[in-house]
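Good morning,

Attaching, inline, the backbone tokens for the sequence recovery test we're adding to the shared suite. The designed sequence is right after.
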């Protein structure tokens, strides 16, 4: 080994560093789980991992996005370990991250959304409504509380903690206010059944959609919200970005399927050469 410190001590120390840096518990747990997993799969302590082992492990993964995420976990870990002089070698330094295809929006169709809402239990229906009409993520839905629903001339839902950290407010359409009126006014919204882990929210919605033969998942409902918000806003990408709570409009573009009617009006307005008029 290049260090006398054990892998367990390295991981615990790294997680303490993440916590002191204000990283979210979910992020810390993901990092911890992954570091233990790569040791278990390769049969090699973190301090002894080679570039070839890292590349072999990354290549064994199927999804390019997953490969990039796991490689980013490793790079962050080894960057910290070198800065702290706990290790002297970074096996990820020359490992290339896989290129990703340009992602495309995948909103659920309006027909499938109607079918799914009509056939859902009250709980799953509420979760789908929050995703399709407010763009909530599974983790935000799981933590929603009755006292966070603010009614008035401008109704909104308070999110004390979002995916990227920090608080946010989400405007609530009348149809959502009516939906949420069926749930407790205080405490976790999903009483007495909940509260739920965010993965339960995703699994239950995804299972419901699959049971109907709908090729979509919970995130497709958020894509639907982004697409419809983009159209309703008059194709205002900045406003849509705020509604989706994205740090970058580039991320928002992944969630907003362009309205083909808008493109048609543009191409029909292109000037024609005089001999083609």
């Amino acid at each position: 080994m290049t260090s006398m410190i054990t892998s367990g001590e390295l991981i615990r120390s790294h997680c303490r560093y993440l916590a002191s840096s204000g990283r979210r518990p979910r992020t810390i747990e993901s990092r911890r789980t992954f570091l233990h997993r790569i040791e278990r799969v390769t049969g090699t302590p973190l301090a002894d991992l080679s570039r070839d082992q890292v590349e072999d492990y990354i290549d064994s993964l199927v999804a390019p996005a997953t490969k990039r995420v796991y490689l980013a976990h490793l790079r962050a870990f080894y960057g910290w370990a070198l800065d702290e002089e706990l290790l002297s070698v970074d096996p990820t330094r020359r490992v290339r991250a896989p290129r990703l295809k340009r992602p495309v929006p995948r909103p659920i169709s309006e027909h499938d959304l109607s079918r799914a809402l009509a056939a859902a239990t009250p709980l799953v229906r509420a979760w789908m409504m929050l995703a399709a009409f407010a763009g909530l993520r599974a983790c935000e839905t799981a933590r929603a509380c009755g006292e966070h629903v603010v009614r008035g001339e401008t109704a909104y839902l308070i999110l004390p903690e979002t995916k990227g950290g920090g608080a946010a407010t989400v405007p609530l359409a009348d149809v959502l206010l009516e939906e949420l009126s069926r749930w407790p006014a205080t405490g976790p919204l999903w009483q007495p059944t909940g509260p739920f882990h965010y993965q339960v929210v995703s699994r239950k919605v995804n299972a419901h959609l699959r049971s109907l033969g709908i090729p979509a998942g919970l995130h497709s409902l958020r894509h639907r919200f982004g697409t419809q918000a983009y159209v309703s806003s008059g194709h205002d990408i900045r406003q849509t970005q705020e509604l989706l709570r994205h740090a970058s409009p580039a991320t928002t573009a992944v969630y907003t399927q362009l309205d083909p009617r808008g493109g048609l009006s543009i191409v029909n307005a292109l000037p024609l050469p005089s001999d083609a008029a």
